[in-house]
Write a structure and sequence with these properties.
Order of helices and strands: HHEHEHEHEHHEEH
Low-confidence stretches: none
CATH class: Alpha Beta
Strand content: 5-15%
Shape: globular
Distance between the termini: 22 Å
CATH architecture: 3-Layer(aba) Sandwich
Largest sheet: 4 strands, parallel
Helix content: 25-40%
Length: 252
């Protein structure tokens, strides 16, 4: 199946009924509107989530039935809420939205949703929604670049700024160069390795408290080839996971 044949916004009623009868896995791209420095747009996470979802549809090529929902474009952006390009929702709003989408899917006989999440700030909200929906018979899976770890370490040339964070850096900029090069301004890419507070793991900080830029790492080292290598592995893993999720659905 093509993207057009799975895109909920483009299907008419007859086409939707036919697809629903196959009990597809629902794909929900999730991103955020968040500052990413001068070399990437504020919609970077949205662009990556949507294009990665479309590539997954193409990678699966109809072997697993999929229903692609519209992008959820706003997320929780607490850490960079005071940056010029950031517009945040609360965790509660994001989580509640996911729960209600899950309940709507359930009324259509669908029991499996995959959040293709390109914004790590959404993780807590997704987890909370997963727990609520599980109690109601709906599986919400969270795909936060599964399978990226090994290929990332293989292609990385510059160190990560922090072991728990990746933002507008060599890796994320490489993703954009591969999936959306028209939105990248490599002439504006910078290196930024801020000094994190020594209690950063225990105390909440706005990133503006210790860094003048939302870039964490060296965006200058990004290449489209690095992005392709990592995301090919991610897409392979995603395709495996959606097939398994579809197989594990309860019988209608």
């Amino acid at each position: 199946m093509t993207v057009q044949e799975t895109d909920a916004e483009l299907l008419n009623d007859r086409e939707m009924r036919t697809l629903l009868a196959r009990r597809p896995v629902v794909l929900l791209p999730m991103g955020a509107v968040e500052s990413h420095g001068d070399h990437l747009p504020a919609g970077t996470d949205n662009i990556l989530a949507r294009r990665l979802a479309e590539r997954l549809v193409e990678r699966v090529a109809g072997r697993t039935p999929l229903l692609l929902l519209p992008l959820l474009p706003f997320g929780q952006v607490w850490s960079l809420a005071d940056a010029p390009g950031s517009f945040t929702l609360s965790n509660e709003t994001v989580s509640r939205t996911l729960v209600e989408i899950g309940r709507a899917a359930r009324t259509k006989g669908l029991s499996t949703i995959v959040a293709i999440n390109a914004h790590y700030g959404n993780a807590v909200a997704i987890r909370d929604a997963q727990r609520v929906l599980k109690e109601e018979g709906v599986t919400l899976a969270a795909f936060n670049y599964p399978g990226a770890g090994t290929p990332t370490e293989a292609v990385r040339e510059r160190p990560a700024a922090h072991p728990a964070f990746m933002h507008a850096c060599e890796i994320e900029t490489s993703y954009m160069l591969h999936l959306a090069p028209e939105h990248v301004r490599m002439d504006e890419a910078i290196e930024n390795y801020p000094a994190f507070p020594d209690d950063f793991g225990e105390v909440p900080y706005r990133w503006s408290e210790f860094s003048d830029s939302p870039v964490l790492g060296d965006a200058r080292a990004a290449t489209a080839e690095k992005g392709r290598t990592i995301l090919d592995a991610v897409l392979d893993r995603m395709a495996e996971l959606v097939a398994r999720l579809h197989e594990r659905q309860p019988q209608a």
